[in-house]
Amino acid sequence: MRKDKVLQSYNDAKEQYAALGVDTEAALKKLNQVKISLHCWQADDVGGFETPDAELGSGGGIQATGNYPGKAKTIDQLMQDIDKVMSLLPGSQRLNLHAIYGDFEGKKVDRNQIEVKHFQRWIDWAKKNKTGIDFNPTCFSHPYAADGFTLSSKNEDYRKFWVEHVKRTRKIAAEMGKQLGTPSVNNIWIHDGSKDLPVDRNAHRAILKKSLDEIFLVDYPKEYLKDSMEPKLFGIGLEAMTVGSAEFYLAYATRNKKLMCLDNGHFHPTEQVGDKISAVLQFLDEILLHITRPIRWDSDHVVIFNDDLQLIAQEIVRANALNRVNVGLDYFDASLNRIGAYVIGTRAAQLAFLYALLEPYETLKKYEEAGQSFERLALMEVMKTKPLGAVYDYYCLTNDVPVAEDYISVIQQYEKDVLSKRV
Ligand code: RNT
Ligand code: ZN
What is the DSSP code string of 224-270? Predict the structure, then answer.
């Protein structure tokens, strides 16, 4: 895109928004504060580095479909990919690691043995990139998770194993936060549940509560670690019951002052995560978001700029809660260029926040309070065709990253030079 054209379009856009009382410069300043956490697992379809050919196991209720060439198989490749992704994104991002992505140096390190040293390379990488890291215990793709239960297991050996694993992830995450000077969000998601109608839901939920209480016994400073828990409606092969449901974790997080993660693939399709934000924020100090795109089920398609995402961003901005929401992405599509998947999804999320920041909120609120619902709806419709893209293009230009479709050819080149050479 030609620089003068981008600037010209931006100046025009700026005027159009200003006429509605919206300050584009202020919006871009706020957009810069939105640090999106890039989920490392899109780069390799949730395989991890425990063994050279590790793959997402079945039984965890999640699935990556597709076999597009070029997935990252080593830490070096993953770092290279994330560096490339970040070079194509305006603003700055964080990295979200799962525990199976450590530097295990070819040795067998079971989940109850992981230590800070296995993640020091990532911490150093983040230091160099001046960014933060978020973390996740990996309670799936493991023989002790194969019967459907981990932290809520009636098998005490398995349960203890997973409690130890999660305890260790908290310790590692706190160390990441300490070394990097920005707290690490450690998010617990377990698939625990059952395929068919269980009769003892109560016991599994009681066990999960007990496990979490044990896990959270150690206190870490808030500046280092934020604990989060992620509920889910159901998983594949776990359709009848999920132990860690929304009610369970909302109640647990409220009572114990923890974060709750809202993944917009984890609810009934007619529910809107955007609507839940101002509800839970009345009771929780902070939340974590997993932004994804479910099609018919929690399919984790690449995030796009759709209604779902718009409402999520609008509700955060309208509630003036940008500083209370930790934003992460969570999808894994193995059927297309994975670098492209990151850039599309992250740009879509940024666009949604920018769209929300460019909303003439005060005017809309005035209409609402005066009962002028025609005027409110009309203005919301008008905003959909305002030159949002011109403002985002300008943001890319001033951040020195490819503008609009210009990133496509950069990724094509990377595929040719790097991805296609991976066997
Ligand atoms: C699964 C959850 C969870 C995972 C990652 C890999 O349904 O969304 O967040 O996607 O932990
Ligand atoms: Zn998620």
Answer: TEEEEE---S-BTTB-SEESS-HHHHHHHHHHHT-EEEEETTSS-TT
